[in-house]
Amino acid sequence: MRSQHIYLLSITLGALLAAAAANGSGPLPFVSPMFGDNMVLQRGKANAMWGWSEPGDHIQIKIGEQTASAIAGADRRWQVKIQPPPAGGPYIIKITGRETVELHNVLVGDVWLCGGQSNMQLPLRFARNGAEEVKAANYPDIRFFSVTGHPAYRHSDVIEGTWKVVSPETADWISAVGYYFARKLQHEIHVPIGLVVDALGGTPAEAWTSADTLRPLHDFDVPLAEVQRLAAERAPEYGNYVMHWYDEYDIGLKGNWAAPELDDSTWKSIDIPGGFSGLGVPDTPAVAWFRKEIVLPDPLPEGRAVLFLGSVERMDTAYVNGKFVGASAWVENPRVYPLGEGLLKPGRNILAIRVLKTKPDGGFLGKPEELHLMLGDKSSIPLAGQWKGKLSVDARPPQLLPIAYENWPVMPTVLYEGMLVPIAPLSITGALWYQGEQNSERGYQYRRILPMMIADWRRLFGQGDFPFYIVSLPAFKPRSATPVDDAWAETRESQALAAASAPNACLAVTIDTGDPDNIHSKDKQPVGERLALCALAKYYSKNVVYSGPTLASVERLPSSIRLHFANAAGGLVVKGTKLEEFAIAGEDRKWYWADARIEGDTVVVSSPSVPNPKEVRYAWQSNPAATLFNGAGLPAGPFRTDTWPGITESQRPY
Prior knowledge:
Layout: H1 2-22, E1 40-42, E2 47-52, E3 58-63, E4 66-71, E5 77-82, E6 88-96, E7 100-116, H2 118-121, H3 130-136, E8 139-146, E9 163-166, H4 176-189, E10 193-199, H5 211-214, H6 221-232, H7 242-249, H8 251-254, E11 268-272, E12 286-296, E13 306-310, E14 312-313, E15 315-320, E16 323-328, E17 335-338, E18 347-357, E19 363-364, E20 372-374, E21 380-382, E22 385-394, H9 414-420, E23 430-434, H10 443-461, E24 468-471, E25 475-476, H11 487-501, E26 505-508, E27 514-515, H12 525-538, E28 550-556, E29 561-566, E30 572-574, E31 582-585, E32 591-593, E33 595-599, E34 602-606, E35 615-618, E36 628-630, E37 639-640
Parallel strand pairs: 1-7, 7-10, 7-23, 8-10, 23-24, 24-26, 25-27
Antiparallel strand pairs: 2-5, 3-4, 3-6, 6-7, 8-9, 11-22, 12-18, 12-22, 13-17, 13-20, 14-19, 15-16, 15-18, 20-21, 28-29, 29-34, 30-36, 31-32, 31-35, 33-34, 35-37
Helix pairs in contact: 4-12, 10-11
């Protein structure tokens, strides 16, 4: 699964680099790409549609018996609001002005915006039983539009993407969470469902939030000023800091040290893994380029070749015969870069790897056998050993380092501007949000950012307090045998607080899903279906249970604590052999595992180690043994009764 993520990441980075180079300078289309064949229009409210034409052009839209018109303004933009015909279809939309466009196979139903990072983006093909699910995905009344990743430093007008009908031919790349949500919803309410997947891996909530909303926090003053500076300079819109730093300081990039024809005869001979000691920078930050010539057989074996580089600190950028093949700043993740067809050739090939290291033991971290090139027939060419290397940036002080090292969009506002602004004010039913991993080291701060972001989106789309449903993070990382403070637990708490405080919000608890070794769990069906339960209960007014047990009140007894629960439909239930993961503490704030038992709709906790208990925590770690459920089969979310400072309370981004 990790290799699949790196494959997706390398594709995404390639697309983002191309978009950054283009800088959004293309002509504006007559009709926004947000509208096309196979789309779903929102039922029950006026739908905004827009595009660009000559100033003064009279635009008319006709759908069924409905018509509406507008005039293109001085900025060339036109926008029409039109009432949709009844739910169902298919319909034809005819748009006339100086151009004429017809949109075919259009349905009217409910449109849901799916936002977040890679776990929302993760395609169905990579979910559990993905191949079988894709083959069975024949739902012509479910449509999806995946917004192409595009960070921007100023307002953007146009995004890329196309509407697709869910079928075995298209479902490979639909958001798995979105698919399971839509499938359950469509089965229950029997109207078409449209998904607009506006998500990008590794991105923080502040990237999806406007500058006007973030400024009052003052936590993002430095990066907001940097985005403003880059926008004024019309710099490439990478959406991260490290790529601009390379542009400014990396002489290897400026000199095209990845080029196959480069004369590297004067470069030093270097052993990989390792390499930086031979270049005179064993313990200090530096950027170095490494090149290696390999000779491949003629003919080349058929099939996709894959480059394996092991883990790298801090960031690598890989080229084969001068072509970019992948890059990552995710230190712990072994690099696995599939190579495109025709990239390798019989005979001489040149590999070039740029590495930015920040720590004394940085650079290539893998074992020698982890570095290899696997050809299409699964034969392997070892890559450890002698390479040629050259120092590009000696990054010791006073050399400035980038604000942050991620090479995907992490700057505040850049996805709000590049991926949300261009699709507003699209008419929607509501939004789904699966994100928080990238903010987890600042989990306490997230309780402020997330509600502000929700309000920001609602202002942008101008459709009131539309439903906003949040995925509580699943289990991840090794399980602790003792009670701990935990950043992921604090992030889940912030998600729960946001869901409780924002109007028309709901929390989908997924603590019983996940993978301790993989941040991209395959368990996406319960995630999507629990979001659907939120929608069915809170928006569609169906009589369904949508929540697991939630803490209602705390009763402190002489030697124990009684916890009262709401949402205990069917009673409180233990999943497994015993009720686990309750911890208890006295005034000394030392936590001990508690004995816990169910009594009606309450849980009584105690411990001989805490004769005078004051506070309780449940499932308070990244990967807890979460065993408390209700009779409807839904889990209780992690919670705590204390308000003691957590480990992320003082953490700030810069």
